[in-house]
Amino acid sequence: MEPVMRRLAVALYLLPLLLTVSGALAIAVKGESSRFVAVAPGIEYASFQVRPGDAELFSGHAFKIDLDVAELRLVPAGGPSSRRTVEEIVASYPAVVATNASFFDKDGRAMGLGVDEGRLIASGKRQSWGALVVTDKRARIVLGAEVNDPLAHRLVVQGTPRLVVGGRVQQLKPQLAERTAVCAEGSVVVLVVSTKTESTAFARFLADPPDKGGLGCGDALNLDGGPSTQLVVKLPRLALSLPRGSGVPNALVVVPGKGTGTERRQ
Length: 266
Fold this sequence. Notes:
Blueprint: E1 20-21, E2 24-25, E3 27-29, E4 37-40, E5 43-50, E6 58-66, E7 71-76, H1 86-89, E8 96-100, E9 112-116, E10 119-124, E11 130-135, E12 138-143, E13 155-159, E14 162-165, E15 168-169, E16 176-185, E17 188-198, H2 199-207, E18 220-222, E19 231-235, E20 238-242, E21 250-255
Parallel strand pairs: 3-5
Antiparallel strand pairs: 1-2, 4-5, 5-6, 6-17, 7-21, 8-19, 8-21, 9-10, 9-13, 11-12, 11-13, 14-15, 14-18, 16-17, 16-18, 19-20
């Protein structure tokens, strides 16, 4: 008999959590392999708890997105200077996974490029920042200077710093903060949110292979964090809410594909 799914509503301060989904344990602890479970068509989930040897314990959530199945969008809060919480941005979506995305200036305008479905929603290109670029159904993280024709891509969002490049953790400024990050390779995008952690410890977790308790990200980009870090999950098999009071200019929004949601990538 199939196990009963537990519907969860968690706050960030309650982490780490153990979540039973489809009879599998969705948790990654340092020294153990990351285990993702399918929670919707094209979306897999894992919670994690990490105990670095040189930093404080941190925990959070990771979502592995298959772009061949699920849809990834950059949804603005409204006009150029509009800011809303992620929960408000995705209020009309019946099924969704969403996090905050762009940094913003003192006037509330998104910093860096922002493109959704080939439409320019933020034009302030930052040459030295990183950029998540999705072309058709393939994603990569590149230097902003390499994005020569933003409207040639389906989605672009910039952030800083690049945490992992070619599997290597970058030299990062020490900083303790909540984190929102994205990894990308081919048809797979991984969205990650965490409790307060040092930048290098977080980047190591992203880069470490699953058999060492990491996520195995070859390239990872830091998005806006601190009080901007937010997560909303509304799925039949999983509900999460990590709210913040801060309004943000846009959100990375994942809409599940059609199907049972139990398929796994081969």
